[in-house]
Amino acid sequence: MPRVIVFDVNETLLDLEALDPHFERLFGRAAARREWFGQLLQSALVSTVTGVYTDFGAVGMAALEMLAARHGVVLADDDRQAIRERMRTLPPHPDVRESLERLRDAGLRLATLTNSTAEVGDAQITNAGLRDLFERTLSADAVRRLKPAPEPYRMAAERLDWAVGDVRLVAAHAWDVARALRAGCAAAFVARPGQVLDPLVPAPDIVGADLREVADRIITVES
Fold it and tell me: Please, what are the domains in the chain?
C-alpha cells in the first residue's frame, strides 16, 4: 500500500535564504540567519526535552533576541515584525512544485507537518503557492509538543487516518528524520546545502541531493 508522504516545511520545502537581507541589515552578514535558525532549533529542542511548551513563533523570536544579545545588536519592533512577516512568505525551493506535482500525479497522498502553528504553517504553504497540492497542513502545536517529540508524528498519522508505519516523512534535517524513524515512520532525507545525516542514526532508505531525486525514489518505492 502506498504511504502518505508528509513534508517538513522550513528548509525542506521553503527557502530560508529569503531572510538573508534582513539579517545582513541587522547583523552585518547574511550568515547570521543560519546562526539564528540553529539557535531556534536548539531552543525548540530544549522546550521539548524539558516538557515546557512554547509555540514555535515565540521560540523564533526568543532565538532572535539571544542572537542580538550575543552580537550587541539592539532590535526595534519593526525589525522583529519584518522577520515574522517574511517567515510567512518564504518562497519554495525551485525543485518543490514540480516534485510535489509528480508525487501527487503518481497517486500519493501529500501533507505537511511543521513546528509552526497551524495558522502560520497554512499561511506559509498558501503564500508559497503550494496549498492545492496538500491534503492537510498539520502542526505540532495541535499536541503542544514540538518535533522531535514523538507526539507530532503520531498525530499526523491519526489525522490522516493512516498507520504510523505507513507514513513517510520527508525532511532536510537529520534530527527530524531520526525521530520519524524512531516513531515508526519511514523517512526520506533531502540533502539541502549544508545538511547531512547523523552517522549515529541508521540512514533512511531514501536519500537525495534535492527533492527531484527524492521524488524519483519515492515513486519507485511506493507506487
Answer: 4-15+91-222 (3.40.50.1000), 16-88 (1.10.150.240)
